[in-house]
From TrEMBL:
PANTHER family: PHOSPHODIESTERASE YAEI, TRANSMEMBRANE PROTEIN WITH METALLOPHOSPHOESTERASE DOMAIN-RELATED
Domain of life, per lineage: Bacteria
Species of the source: Microbispora rosea
Keyword Secreted in record: no
Membrane-traversing stretches: 6-23, 35-52, 72-94, 171-190
A GO cellular component annotation in the UniProt record: membrane
Protein name stated in the entry: Calcineurin-like phosphoesterase domain-containing protein
Pfam families on file: Metallophos
InterPro entries the record matches: Calcineurin-like_PHP (IPR004843), Metallo-depent_PP-like (IPR029052), Metallophosphoesterase_sf (IPR051158)
Keywords, sorted A to Z: Hydrolase, Membrane, Metal-binding, Transmembrane, Transmembrane helix
GO BP, sorted A to Z: lipid A biosynthetic process
SUPFAM superfamilies documented for this protein: Metallo-dependent phosphatases
GO MF assignments: metal ion binding; UDP-2,3-diacylglucosamine hydrolase activity
Cofactor: a divalent metal cation
């Protein structure tokens, strides 16, 4: 099954669940509200498929920009409707069980009450009604001679308790989903958090202690971002006065022709020893491949590290900064090659490796890397996705270490990324720009 096929299958399953729990359970058959909500779900489901498959369907960036905002926002709302819906299943089931028990108890008691009414003399019933003020009698017969149940039926019936439970649960689910997405949008579109992280490298020359490396990843220039997104990131990085800047993949979601103007501010990056870039998986998703972006970044003064390394000389000491291609380049023969990137170097010098995916740290440890800088995970971006990331990657976010062959550890720092992919929503994983300070 292809990518679009999987998306369609997932969309159908989730929307079917939402219709069953939020529409059918909360509306009456044939009602106008049920028809409107049903068609709304159908339209939103189609919009989501078009949003996800836009580039693969050849719709072009202009069309993608039109559908991306409503499509991706609905994706976020749909996801949290699904999550909150699952959470509400337990209290909904408990409430329904309690109501069912009470209803069965009432139905079991009804025959005895009716028999008692039939056995009571008519005069007693009328007198009891008069004593109560001429209204309903103690035995359930009104002065009109009509049973109370029939009187209620003649007026407006009370809402069914099951329907009341379903509508209450649906309101809680909708309010929770909308509030969560609203918060997530404000986080995703706000300023990235500056994380200042001191990292000790045992092999670092004391003269190099204090070297500062700015790390940014997953900027994701695309249909939902503008030039201001890049300008803000560049401005914030320049404010850190870093010695080197590293862009650890997933810079773009499109071609140079579509997004080149959004990347132009990267030419204003400032650092003592330069700005560097390695490919992420998204650089391989266009038909043109990553090469056009490699050349574009070179023209902006950002040096791509394509399975290669450079020497960073600071205060009379030297550190190797290496970079490898992303794993998604393997099918096209453009994958990572740590042997090429690290071969022939002075093993006594520390080495910092730029590699987009944290999972590459296992190979890095085998090659004696001191520190790996990665992104890719977005920190989960939308909780509880952070609980699923460990199924694919060894680290969700932050600093961790992996034992090296021959002793010592390879440390890996995973940044949450400065942008977002898909929905412009971040919950539990605010955007991040990292300033790493190396210490001996």
């Amino acid at each position: 099954m292809g990518f679009v096929g999987m998306i369609v299958a997932a969309v159908v399953v989730v929307h079917a669940y939402l219709w069953r729990r939020l529409v059918r359970a909360s509306t009456t058959p044939g009602s106008r509200s049920r028809r409107v909500l049903t068609w709304a779900l159908v339209v939103l489901a189609v919009l989501m498929v078009v949003t996800f498959g836009g580039s693969r369907l050849g719709l072009g960036m202009d069309v993608e920009r039109v559908v991306a905002w409503p499509g991706y926002l609905w994706l976020a709302v749909m996801f949290y409707l699904f999550v909150f819906g699952l959470v509400m299943e337990v209290p909904r089931a408990v409430a329904t069980f309690v109501v069912s028990r009470r209803r069965r108890a009432a139905e079991a008691a009804a025959p005895a009450e009716r028999a008692e009414e039939e056995a009571a003399p008519v005069d007693e019933v009328v007198l009891a009604g008069a004593a109560a003020g001429g209204g309903a009698t103690a035995h359930g017969t009104a002065t009109t001679g009509m049973p109370v149940a029939e009187e209620a039926a003649a007026g407006t019936p009370a809402i069914d308790r099951r329907l009341f439970i379903s509508r209450t649960a649906s309101a809680v689910v909708a309010a929770g989903a909308l509030a969560t997405v609203g918060y997530g949008v404000s986080m995703a579109l706000g300023d990235p958090v500056i994380e200042r992280v001191p990292i000790r490298l045992p092999r670092l020359d004391p003269r190099m202690s204090g070297l500062r490396i700015a790390v940014v990843s997953d900027i994701h220039l695309g249909p939902l971002t503008g030039r201001g997104h890049t300008e803000r990131i560049v401005r914030m990085i320049n404010g850190l006065e870093a010695d080197a800047v590293t862009i650890v993949g997933d810079l773009v979601d499109g071609t140079v022709a579509e997004l080149g103007r959004l990347a132009t501010p990267l030419g204003s990056l400032e650092s003592r020893y330069g700005a560097y870039f390695v490919t992420g998986n998204h650089e391989y998703y266009t038909a043109e491949g990553p090469q056009e972006w490699i050349e574009e970044l070179r023209s902006l003064g950002v040096r791509p590290l394509r399975n290669e390394r450079v020497e960073i000389r600071h205060a009379g000491a030297v550190l190797d900064l290496a970079g490898v291609n992303d794993l998604n380049g393997v099918p096209s023969g453009d994958g990572p090659d740590l042997g090429k990137a690290l071969g022939g170097r002075d093993a006594n010098r520390p080495v910092v490796l730029m590699a987009h995916q944290p999972v590459q740290v296992t190979q890095a440890a085998a090659h004696g890397v001191d520190l790996q800088l990665s992104g890719h995970t977005h920190g989960g971006q939308m909780a509880p996705f952070n609980l699923l990331v460990p199924l694919q990657q060894p680290v969700v976010a932050g600093l961790a270490s992996v034992p090296r062959t021959g002793g010592g550890d390879t440390q890996v720092y995973v940044t949450r990324g400065a942008g977002f992919w898909g929905p412009p929503v971040r919950v539990g994983a605010p955007p991040e720009i990292t300033l790493i300070e190396l210490r001996a």
